[in-house]
């Protein structure tokens, strides 16, 4: 059974190299090729950061050059450009927009994250832009809440989950039976409802063996918070 860290592994790295090579023909992609061989013994986040930094090194131009390359990579008829390779791509976009420092790059990066989020999620990269200019980012994110695209609306909620005042996360549920918590919902009663889907035991991630054990569970955990209602909903 693969570990979560392996979600960004050799296959994802190869697909990223193939997609970028198609969108930027003639670019050696030396850093990406080196990073692809250096993923072992790293956490999932470290792998994403390594490939994102390598992408920035291989495409050293300004923000506009990176954005054009990414959009070309995502066009129909190009090699597959989705799945876990999207995490390092979106991280590179956000980092390059912040380095640019201009409003035009910032706004386009927000738009590009919205374009890409349906290919996996852009929520990991959105934090970089929120930290850089919170008011500007939130003004754009507010428009996403009315988007006809479910993935963009989800980005508005999932990408803005708050840290604690000291910038840390805290654990609200830890138990041996909490196998792959997913589909979280914060309810008006102050509880967080979580489905436990046993995904690592499913055939796709378990050598084609189905070791899931019914019944499947939904648990609730008191968190002392309630949802923030947006608009008139």
Provide an overview of this structure.
With 233 residues, the chain is mostly helical. It folds into two domains: 4-158, no CATH class; 181-222, no CATH class. It is 45% helix and 8% strand. The protein is built from nine helices and three strands, in the order H-H-H-H-H-H-H-H-H-E-E-E. It has helices spanning 10-23, 30-36, 44-58, 63-73, 86-100, 103-116, 123-132, 134-144, 150-158, and strands at 181-186, 191-196, 217-222. The chain has a three-stranded antiparallel β-sheet with strand order 1-2-3, with no helix packed on it. Strand 1 (181-186) and strand 2 form a beta hairpin. The longest helix is centred in the first third of the chain and has 15 residues, at 44-58. It is globular, with a radius of gyration of 19 Å. 27% of the residues are buried. The model has no long low-confidence stretch (mean pLDDT 90).
**Portion of residues within helices:** 40-55%
Radius of gyration: 19 Å
- Largest sheet, spatial ordering of strands: 1-2-3
The string of secondary-structure elements, in order, is HHHHHHHHHEEE
Provide key terms for this protein:
single chain; three-stranded antiparallel β-sheet; 233 residues; 9 helices
Give a brief outline of the structure:
With 233 residues, this protein is mostly helical. It is 45% helix and 8% strand. The chain has a three-stranded antiparallel β-sheet with strand order 1-2-3, with no helix packed on it.
SSE map:
Elements: H1 10-23, H2 30-36, H3 44-58, H4 63-73, H5 86-100, H6 103-116, H7 123-132, H8 134-144, H9 150-158, E1 181-186, E2 191-196, E3 217-222
Antiparallel strand pairs: 1-2, 2-3
